[in-house]
Specification:
Elements (H helix, E strand, L loop, with lengths): L4 H4 L1 H25 L4 H4 L10 H10 L2 H9 L1 E2 L10 H16 L3 H5 L5 E6 L2 E6 H26 L6 H5 L7
Parallel strand pairs: 1-2
Antiparallel strand pairs: 2-3
Helix pairs in contact: 2-6, 2-8, 4-6, 4-8
């Protein structure tokens, strides 16, 4: 069996987004159990010079469904001004990304292979093929931000473990 672009990207995005959804749920439950305001987590950071949880969650959406949309459009860039969002909004954003990815067909994604994609950041441009962009740029960014979101919640006392990060495994049936 050949590994398809869909399997290498969308299936992986879905697995990790499911995990992100799960650890956001655990974050909310932790706050409710401790009588803490979950809104305090939205701007929580690992270090003062790092972006907060909100940015990490927005980035996992941007580097998953946003990356696929960027490949379709032939260009991808960092998101513009992202509106403020509360904890429920972060949960909703992950859910919407999962839903949008769930509507993609393997054929639709696999047909993107070989397309040109330009990453734009101000005047800086990097040319990619679709698979080069997804696998060497968006996928590492996606996992970096998912891991950082996990780490922020863990640093705030949310009881998470490795299994929470892994999400639903794609086991042989």
């Amino acid at each position: 069996m050949t590994l398809s672009l869909f399997d290498a990207t969308v299936a992986g995005f879905q697995q990790t987004l499911g995990a992100v959804s799960g650890f956001l749920d655990k974050g909310l439950a932790h706050c409710m159990d401790k009588g803490e305001d979950p809104e305090a987590l939205v701007q929580a950071r690992l270090f003062p010079d790092m972006f907060p949880l909100l940015f990490q969650i927005q980035s996992v959406a941007h580097h998953s469904i946003g990356a696929i949309e960027g490949v379709k459009a032939g260009q991808f860039q960092p998101p513009g001004n992202i509106p403020p969002m509360d904890y429920a909004g972060m949960v909703r954003l992950v859910s919407e990304a999962r839903e949008a990815l769930g509507k993609l067909t393997p054929e639709e994604v696999n047909d993107l292979a070989g397309r040109d994609v330009i990453f734009h950041f101000r005047d800086f441009k990097m040319p990619f093929t679709a698979e080069g962009f997804l696998l060497s740029f968006s996928m590492p960014n996606f996992h970096f931000h998912a891991t950082t979101a996990y780490d922020i919640l863990r640093s705030q006392g949310v009881p998470l473990g490795k299994r929470d990060y892994m999400g639903a495994l794609r086991l042989k049936s």
